[in-house]
Write a structure and sequence with these properties.
Layout (H helix, E strand, L loop, with lengths): L1 H17 L25 E4 L2 E5 L15 E5 L2 E4 L5 H22 L6 E4 L5 E7 L10 H11 L30
Helix pairs in contact: 2-3
């Protein structure tokens, strides 16, 4: 009888000690590993997740119940830290498009689109874009050179219209630290 009580008591103690609170039921992962903190993308601000009420905040006057307020949840995302208008973005896209066209035309051997040497006669690597040269978009030679590099392939065009392939609008930027 005493032996049964000792076995029962020891099994209860073992059961309670196994139900400890280490980890709180969360998956811990590997221990002693370096903490990784991702950096924010250049010029971006982190916006945490949250929710807000969308719709009218006042009472529905005609009681039509067509404009009911509802709660919307939004996941976390990054946003540019400076405001930009649609016109400013359109100008940016135009500059990227023109820089790609100048580079492609210059590499194809059309004169005037790239500056390959400085005023002292030293070769520049990479060559700089000559923004003073106008792109003759309607010139047949220019159209043939840019057709494959900048425009959508024929099987992807909508109603056969020649449109730019915006997937190829990849730009490079440099940061110049004036202080150093």
């Amino acid at each position: 009888m005493i032996m049964k009580k000792i076995i029962l008591l020891s099994s209860i103690v073992a059961l309670l000690s196994a139900c400890g609170s280490s980890g709180n039921g969360e998956l811990i992962g590997s221990q002693n590993r370096q903490i990784w903190n991702p950096t924010d993308p250049y010029g971006m601000v982190f916006i945490p997740q949250g929710s807000f009420n969308m719709g009218p905040s006042d009472q529905d006057v005609p009681f039509a119940n067509v404009t009911a307020s509802k709660t919307i949840s939004v996941g976390a995302f990054y946003m540019d830290e400076t405001e930009i208008t649609n016109n400013e973005y359109r100008q940016f896209v135009t500059w990227v498009r023109d820089s790609l066209a100048h580079t492609i035309l210059g590499e194809a051997g059309i004169e005037g689109h790239l500056i390959e040497e400085d005023k002292y006669g030293n070769f520049l690597d990479p060559a700089k874009i000559n923004w003073n040269t106008k792109i003759r978009w309607n010139d047949q030679e220019v159209r043939e050179i840019l057709e494959e590099e900048m425009y959508l392939p024929e099987h992807e065009r909508l109603n056969g219209r020649r449109e730019f392939d915006t997937r190829k609008y990849v730009y490079k930027y440099q940061v110049l630290d004036i202080q150093s």
